[in-house]
Amino acid sequence: MTGDDTRHLPLEDLHQAAGARFGAFAGWSMPLTYPPGVMKEHLHTREHAGLFDISHMKLFEVSGPEATALLNRACPLDAGALEISQSKYTFFLNEAAGIIDDLIVTRLGDDRFMVVANAGNAVEDEKHLRALATAFDVGVEPLDRVFLAIQGPDAWAALARAGIETGSLLFMHGVEPRQNWFMSRSGYTGEDGFEIGLPEKDARDLVAKLLGDERVQWIGLAARDSLRLEAGLCLHGQDLTPETDPASAGLMWAIPKEVRASGHFIGADALRSIIERGPSQKRVGLKPDGRQPVRAGAALIDADGHPAGHVASGGFGPSAGHPVAMGYVNTALAKAGTKLFADVRGTKIPVDVTPLPFTPHRYRKG
Amino acid sequence: MAKTYFTEDHEWLRVDGGVATVGITDYAQEQLGDLVFVELPEIGRKLAKGDTAVVVESVKAASDVYAPVDGEITEANASLSADPSLVNSAATGDGWLWKMRLANESQLDSLMDEAAYKAHIG
After folding, report:
1. For residue A23, what is the nearest residue in chain B, using CA coordinates?
2. Which fold is adopted by the domain B3-107?
């Protein structure tokens, strides 16, 4: 946990001062909770505004005459069809259409894009992208930034009070409001909110202003996980893996029809054949009966006792008020209302296949 | 007169008349965070020291609580079914987990008293 290889957030001193409890995640020492605790932090985010330090995530700037061509090859994406400032949720796929990482790509200019990648995959992602980039006239630059998320219904007002106007920015759009800043209206909680990459000095100023607002408080990784799970959002490494394809994951909405049909992205042929024969398993929401959580890795069985799939993410949903989970089940069992059982330490907990999300999304789309 | 013992696994035992009331320490509940479920043991179950007696579940993870000594479960704290957060708010009081009749009282000798436990958690 405290090995020499552990990476530390640039703002670690601020988290220590705030009383954070730290834990290891994806090679980083991350604030898991602050003194209010995961339950209160979670509810505060849904009611007001939560501030998250997500500097473990990586921003890459992709620029050059063939930036669009590189992204169309690396991702099941029509990068050229994005308007300037438009963001798109997408993936790096392998040749088998397995998900190497899930990403958000934002078009910053005619031949300039921002790619936001997961912490756990940042090194692999960079290697992958650089290897592909050798065939194109394009540069891939990892950016040295503090990355903050501010999420919740008061996020926009707290930013406004801190001097950052967000009025015209809509969900899944991103801009560069100041030099070396990147700000998108997006997040990982299901709430309206923003993610802001910026230099450390600017970040310290912004954090001080935001925390001076009683609506804003630090939120740790534990609540980040319960918030995203209630919102039905995938965590790469659990809900998505290099063995999972976008069709099984129920994420085909992220791939435009024309791209599915005729895109030349890596994994295109494999994905087309998966779609043609239909995925054998599908990602679903799972609502356990009663109060006992079912956790990642628990086996699912059907009413006849046959293997049905597995739980990929599970925990307690503080806003839902009950345990929440997601998992993969055989396609025939993926219909909402299907009754299954999760094996938790030998006890069979009844779970219902249920539509996602568990708490409605409240994005600002227009 | 009841005497309180502590284990390295952050449990406490209050022993009175051959019966121990067992819970987790305040330090342990802080580490676990908000509890959302406690899987209680069956009455009459016989436990050897080190057996999993109870599973406490926080928002994020499930953690085993071990039997600190040999014995038989005589009672489980039923109020935790409705309100597992009692373990957070009153770890050494209303948030107790179970009671057990001791099979071998001499095992208590290897446990810590409060001063030793405080030194243990630093």
Report:
1. B31
2. OB fold (Dihydrolipoamide Acetyltransferase, E2P) (2.40.50)
